[in-house]
Amino acid sequence: MTSPMPLPGAMPTPPYPAPPGAWLRSPAALGRATAVLLGVVIAADLFACYADLLEIDVTGDIADGATGSDVVDRADRADTLYGVAGISQGVALLATMVVYLCWLWRVRVNAEVFDASRHRMKRGWTIGGWFCPIVNLWFPRRIVADCWDASAPWNERTGHTPLINAWWTVWLVNLFVGRFADTSSRKAETAEELRQAAKTMLVSDALDIAAAVLAVVVVVRLTRRQERKVLAGPPPVPALG
């Protein structure tokens, strides 16, 4: 587990009472681990894009009437890489999801200490919001946005960055394109159908790369935002008179 966040002096006093069991702890280690694992996701997606291109190439040749042992060998190799890429993506995504949710829980608790009034969702939705159908289309974004707002420097006007909207939009688009690509791939029977499914999967993998890159930026910036707020010390006291 992470160690308590180093403070330059006394613990900053939040402008509103923090909920029971909430205290500041550094999200830095979890943030770095999450960024690294998102990098692994990007690498797995790049490998998947390569497998997609091989699949598109060989299925296109088969659809055009190409035959022979060379085509069969290429098809076998493409199918093998296609399967390996899918497994690699699944493993990378699972590992990243676990660490990412640990990081998100940490920044959520910190954000409650900074300003408990900023949060529109209960803390349990930090995890549950990703897995509950329907609400997982907007609850996670709202939680991240609330954490961003609560972590703003003292006396600075809050308002989450368009970065969060960009990340969540790309993620949602990728979610729907990926499901369509997976369904198309499972239902494909002819070479042409396989080629079209592989093209759709290529788009999905490219979108996943974009979403992962934006997620890295969100993680890094939100982590630094919280660390700077802690190091800034208690909120300034307004002058009297």
TrEMBL record:
- Which InterPro entries does the record cross-reference, listed alphabetically? DUF4328
Q: Which residues cross the membrane?
A: 81-103, 124-144, 164-181, 202-222
Q: Does Transmembrane show up as a keyword for this record?
A: yes
What are the entry keywords?
Membrane, Transmembrane, Transmembrane helix
Q: Does the keyword Membrane apply?
A: yes
The segment(s) forming the DUF4328 domain are 73-224
In terms of Pfam families, this protein maps to: DUF4328 (PF14219)
Q: Which domain of life is it from?
A: Bacteria
Protein name as annotated: DUF4328 domain-containing protein
What species does this protein belong to?
A: Streptomyces tricolor
